Amino acid sequence: MTGIDRRRFAGALTGLSGLAALAQVPLARGALADTPRRAHAGGDPFSLGVASGDPSPDGFVLWTRLAPDPLAPGGGGGMPSRPVPVEWRVATDERMRHVVRRGTVAALPELAHAVHVEPSGLRPDRTYWYQFRHAGELSPVGRTRTTPARGARPGRLSFAFASCQDWASGYYSAYRNLAEEDLDLVVHLGDYVYEGGIPADGGYRATPVPEQLRDAPRDLGRWRLQYALYRSDPDLRRAHARFPWVVTWDDHEVQNDYAADASQYEDDIRALRLAAYQAYYEHQPLRRAAIPRGDGEMRLYRRLSYGDLAEFNVLDGRQYRSAPPCGWGEAPACDAAYDPSVTMLGDRQERWLLDGLAGSRARWNVLANNVMMGRLDHDGPSGDVLWHDAWDGFPAARTRVTDHLAVARVRNPVVITGDWHSTFVNDIRRDFDDPASPVVATEFVGTSISSNGDGEVYGPYYGPMIRHNPHIRFFDGDRRGYVRCTVDRAEWRTDLRMVPTVSRPDVAAYTFASFVVEDGLPGARQA
């Protein structure tokens, strides 16, 4: 591999982190010169599209994965088992005439020929376009954006958040509409893929799938196929190409309701989790710091700022959590959940979150969160049944966060949440065991992109519970869509963008309801 300083990286090539470092090194002219012009046979090497993510004031991550045969058995995408060069460039115009950054990097078979490029030194608060080239073929042009400079005072931020996009449950008509929005970024809150095998008939899509997708993913090759199937959707690819994304996961990227290494279904999920984590990194626009380490940890929690207007605390509520002490899923509350050692985020991440919130100077402080923080009492005063996969299963950990919001006087905390395939607008109280406790934050729980299809599932289930929970300002359980948020210096506006069906991709979204949070006043009111 001509053009790479092997001595510089000899000590770094220990596991995936070393490989990621190697892949980032610019290749000199003539590097990988022994690679033929077309290193693969078959289709478009950019069949899985392009993406950008984790924007900063001077850059972002650019992503693609070479896969001319994305569903080829084994998960290799139709690529050879050797490194190949990929060129990239960033321009200030959509026609890519005014190029301001460019380079060539190695796409490695150990990372499924995925490419993660981190250009820097760009101007803050600017729109850029980007493109990849491999073996004489060009990728689609993607559009992205840097964030305002630190200390800048932007007047407005527009973003959307989404979650729960089971491929077999329906088309991504929500993403087709999201791609037409005028947004600065998209936040994905988990369940990007699901861990089950794909029905032979494609489920709700009625699209036959090949044999190699029928069994559930258990190893890295099969997980790569799962992501390739999901990313084959043209509306998901377009939404990725239109905006920078900020992603975190929930449970279905590994296994339903898992907690760290604990599972309700099997004794040891460590190998499954490691394979799933690597596939997640390979298919998301994440920075090199997120690549899984040799001990299996993947550092996903991080913080992004949008000038002094908003700060996003992106949380990982799966990798470090305790096994739910009162039981998996729906179960009565118990004293064990109030033990101070029980954690949702893990000690290190929790301290990082609390310290960051205390030191924030942002007007709006966002917690990008995977499971609902607000309490959902299932049976009212006569009982104590809760859903223990959510923060309800970790009440002491939740109270440590809500106490901190009050004591540190965190300005305008807003929690954005996925997971529930339903919409909730919640007042977050300092202590949910005390109904008179003050409201310290606002939570918006978004519905699913496609999961549950067009079925009426959670409306009939959760609907009768809402009367036991006066802090829940709004609930809807029967619609699919995404959430659009427009933030300025005076208020936060949330629009629930719904689609009438996921049985076809070409339907228009509509605004089902809107809510406003005023600066300095926690709790939402319906607009």
Task: Tag the structure with descriptive keywords.
527 residues; alpha+beta; ten-stranded mixed sheet; seven-stranded mixed sheet; 9 helices; 16% helix; 27% strand; globular; disordered N terminus
The largest pleated sheet is described as: 10 strands, mixed
pLDDT averaged over residues: 93
What is the radius of gyration computed over CA atoms, rounded to a whole number of angstroms? 23 Å
Classification by helices and strands: alpha+beta
Number of strands: 24
The CA-CA distance between the termini, in Å, is 60 Å
Q: Helical element count?
A: 9
Low-confidence stretches: 1-14, 28-39
Strand order in the largest sheet? 5-2-1-11-10-9-21-22-23-24
Strand content of the residues, in percent? 25-35%
| Fraction of helical residues | 10-25%
Shape: globular
Protein described:
This protein is 16% helix and 27% strand. A hairpin with a 7-residue loop joins strand 3 (84-91) and strand 4. A 10-stranded mixed sheet has the order 5-2-1-11-10-9-21-22-23-24. It has a 7-stranded mixed sheet with strand order 12-13-15-17-19-18-20. Strands 3, 4, 6, 7 and 8 form a 5-stranded antiparallel sheet that branches. Helix 4 (220-231) packs parallel to helix 6. The protein has 527 residues and is of the alpha+beta class. The protein is globular, with a radius of gyration of 23 Å. The longest helix has 13 residues, at 270-282.
At a glance:
By secondary structure, the chain is α+β, with helices and mostly antiparallel strands. The protein has helices spanning 6-9, 15-24, 173-178, 220-231, 234-242, 270-282, 347-359, 395-407, 458-462, and strands at 50-56, 59-65, 84-91, 99-107, 114-117, 127-134, 137-138, 142-145, 156-162, 185-188, 244-247, 302-306, 310-314, 330-332, 364-369, 385-387, 413-417, 423-429, 439-445, 472-476, 480-488, 491-499, 510-518, 521-526. β3 and β4 form a beta hairpin.
